[in-house]
What we know:
The chain is α/β, with parallel strands linked by helices. It has one domain (11-59, 100-248): TIM Barrel. The chain is built from 9 helices and 9 strands. It has helices at residues 27-36, 76-80, 100-107, 127-137, 151-160, 177-183, 198-206, 219-228, 238-248, and strands at 11-15, 40-47, 53-55, 112-117, 144-148, 165-170, 188-191, 210-211, 232-235. Strands 1, 2, 3, 4, 5, 6, 7, 8 and 9 form a 9-stranded mixed beta sheet that branches. It is globular and about 45 Å long.
Amino acid sequence: MWQHRSEGRPRVFGHRGAMGHAPENTFASFDRAVEIGVDAIELDVHLTADGEVVVIHDHELLRTTDGQGIVGEKTLAELKALDAGAHFGAEVAGQRIPTLGEVLAWAGGKCVLDIEIKGGPWPYPGLDALVVNLIRQHEMVDQTIVISFDHPTVARVKALAAEIATGTLWSCRPLDPVAVAQAAGADAILPFWAYCDAETVERAHAAGLSVHPWATSEPAVISHLIELGVDSICSNHPDRVVKAVRRTS
Length: 249
């Protein structure tokens, strides 16, 4: 299992790679994140119509590609024909939607992958098992954490593979975030940064959970999260987190 608790300094997570610098969830973004010096890359996965696990954030294609329609209604071949970079700039035109298998093969020895399994409003039955199988096939158990806003998905992943680190995502303020994570068998909590406070960090750490807030690029917020003692900070501009961590080390 990936060692989800940090030692000394918070780890740096690149949000969808380094999406402030390159088209999100593409190899251009992932390569840029590694160049910056991230410890981990957060990415999102969906299921194609022909059962392939692909890396893209939205259920719909329009915002990040030159295509239209629903990801889950397209085959892998149809998705691979789309340009996932031109919307960001001509210099990155021609980027393609990666498969999770491609990214797992690329990431070995480079960085940890923080894999978010997407669900509603179009859930993908069996996606959790496919993600687990791919992680095992690529021998990336010690370099991944699997997360989701759909906490039953987190519980299913942990039931399928106790050796894989998991985390519960949330963008609200649960009455008891520790209990929520424990009910899903999770190893970590991933709050939206605005709902990450000293009490939450302290209670999570006391329960053996790590804390990985997302996703801010604001220097003042980054400094505050470092002071709280979180285990990582996820950012669209991970270079800003790298600089802040260096200043406080």
